[in-house]
Design a protein that fits this description.
The structure holds 2 protein chains of 2 kinds. Chain A is built from 10 helices and 4 strands, in the order ααβαβααβαβαααα. Chain A is α+β, with helices and mostly antiparallel strands. Chain A is elongated. The longest helix of chain B has 16 residues. Chain B contains 7 helices and 10 strands. Helices cover about 35% and strands about 25% of the residues of chain B. Chain B is of the alpha/beta class. In chain B, the strands form 2 sheets. In chain B, strands 6-7-8-3-9-10 form a 6-stranded mixed beta sheet, sandwiched between helices. Classes of the chains: A alpha+beta, B alpha/beta. At the A-B interface, α1 and α8 of A face α2 and α3 of B.
């Protein structure tokens, strides 16, 4: 057990020595720059999602009741809607409340005053999941005691669709650059094997196992990946703080404290770990491809 | 300790390096393998650490059949052998001491014990005071002695040396051979290939002479 640990420490030390060379540092930098694209895009997307969530908390359907409807009719209908499992909330807005809200909008108060009476109906505001809204709206429109239905789902759906496109883009970018990470590691290790050909050959001749020879390369791939992941996070953090310097005054002018947040700790850890695993994978592929070519067996 | 029976080796392309070679070397024996260049000396020695595999016949080393040895078993076979190559195969990116430490890094030695063993091996070949030097700074004879130190540091039961004196002057060559003889005297089985028949005669030890791939 202790001998096994010593062998791993030996391999790790060898990997660290190789990693401290300029070429390896540059490779880690390349990996970092490549990974910063999907990581940064993801951070931007998450930031924007925060904004859109606040703008459209949950899509709603407004059920306008007939003018002659009484409060009791509304309560009855509301109770019936609450029993529907597809509907998450039901809120009653009386015509008086609605008028009050409307009068707060600048310039409208005079218009309403000119009309002289309250033109607004009582309303039941129903919220549900976005994808259920169109069907639900059509169905609720047919209920007795509902004068008119208005679903404000369309723009929420468009926003969700845009978000979906963004997510597909980030996933695609992450996949492509993950493959690039594997390729970069593959090539770095191929070059290392070439330059250490003599050492590998001598080690094989005097009784080193394959595992002994491969181990430092695996560690190298893993460490280079981890380092690349850390570089990516640093780049994203730096870029976002630059961006926020411009975004914050803009957000303040809208009365918002919005700023792009960097990746959360869990996400950051996932980025670094994934980069490490991909680096290890590249090392694995490269080593099994190139070590066999070195004689003797 | 080492036995060949009916061994043939054909290389791809049809070149036949060894034909029907049979001999056996007992534990503690020292044997010179002689013959002209191309007689098959190197091939014969390469069969012992499984660098090459026999095309026909059986090679036994410490009871292990080289032809049937599985790949993962090869490193453990080689740790029991001390190999000295004509071109030494030293690593020039590290010190003399680290070259000798290399075989110990594969096996389960405590660092302190490994360092002690490495110094003992360097002492035996007379290079202890050069341990911090780079092998490139050593003379040809010193480099060959360093190669021997690396070969014996694992205390192998068999030493196999391919033309260890090839590029050395007479004095250095004699010193190198004396080291092999000294190891033999403490019980190590030694096989040395050389084309220098005159040098071999001086020792009066057993000789296996190869001519055109056969034992002559």
């Amino acid at each position: 057990m202790r001998a096994w640990l010593r062998q791993h420490r030996h391999a790790l030390a060898a990997a660290l020595r190789r990693l401290s060379r300029a070429a390896a540092v540059l490779s880690a930098l390349v990996i970092g720059v490549a990974l910063s694209l999907p990581v940064g895009s993801y951070a931007l997307l998450e930031g924007l999602r925060g904004v859109t969530d606040r703008l459209a908390p949950e899509p709603q359907i407004s059920l306008f009741l007939p003018h002659e409807a009484k409060r009791a009719d509304a309560d009855l209908l509301a109770a019936r809607l609450r029993a529907d499992p597809r509907i998450s909330t039901v809120r009653f807005v009386s015509r008086e409340q609605a008028l009050e809200e409307l009068q707060q909008v600048e310039g409208i108060a005079e218009v309403v005053g000119a009309i002289g009476r309250n033109p607004l109906p009582d309303t039941l505001v129903v919220s549900a999941q976005a994808e259920r809204i169109p069907a639900l709206a059509a169905e609720l429109g047919k209920l007795p005691g509902v004068a008119r239905v208005q679903a404000d789902a369309a723009w929420a759906q468009r926003l969700a669709a845009l978000e979906g496109i963004g997510q597909v883009g980030v996933t695609l970018l992450a996949t492509l650059l993950g493959v690039a990470l594997v390729a970069v590691t593959f090539n770095t290790i191929r070059l290392q094997i070439l330059t250490q050909r003599d050492e590998i050959e001598v080690c094989k001749l005097i009784g080193a196992t394959d595992a002994f020879i491969r181990r430092p390369f695996y560690y190298f791939g893993l460490l280079q990946g981890l380092l690349g992941g850390a570089v990516a996070l640093a780049i994203v953090a730096g870029a976002l703080s630059l961006l926020n310097r411009e975004v914050q005054p803009l957000a303040e002018s809208y009365g918002s404290a919005f700023a792009f947040a960097g990746p959360r700790a869990g996400d950051a850890l996932a980025v670094v770990m994934t980069a490490g695993v991909l680096g290890w994978l590249g090392a694995q592929l490269s080593v099994s491809r190139h070590l066999r070519n070195i004689e003797p067996v | 300790m080492v036995s060949f029976s009916g061994v043939a080796k054909r290389y791809p392309g049809g070149k036949e390096a060894l034909r029907d070679v049979s001999f056996s070397v007992a534990g503690g024996e020292i044997v010179f393998v002689t013959g002209r260049s191309g007689a098959g000396k190197s091939t014969l020695l390469k069969l012992i650490p499984a660098i090459e595999r026999p095309s026909a016949g059986t090679v036994l080393v410490s009871g292990q059949n080289i032809g049937a040895l599985r790949r993962p078993a090869i490193p453990y076979l080689r740790r029991n052998l001390g190999l000295v190559f004509q071109d030494q195969k030293l690593l020039y990116d590290r010190t003399v001491f680290d070259n000798v430490m290399l075989p110990l890094s594969f096996s389960a030695h405590l660092p302190k014990e490994a360092a002690r063993r490495a110094r003992a091996a360097l002492d035996k070949v007379g290079l202890l005071e050069r341990e911090k030097a780079n092998p490139i700074q050593l003379s040809g004879g010193e480099q060959q002695r360093l190669a021997i130190a690396r070969a014996v540091v694992n205390r192998p039961s068999v030493l196999v040396a391919d033309e260890p004196t090839a590029n050395l002057d007479a004095e250095s060559a004699a010193r190198v051979l004396d080291i092999f003889v000294a190891f033999n005297q403490v019980g190590v089985t030694v096989l040395i290939a050389t084309h220098d028949a005159a040098l071999v005669e001086r020792y009066g030890e057993r000789v296996i002479h190869l001519a055109q791939g056969r034992v002559a």
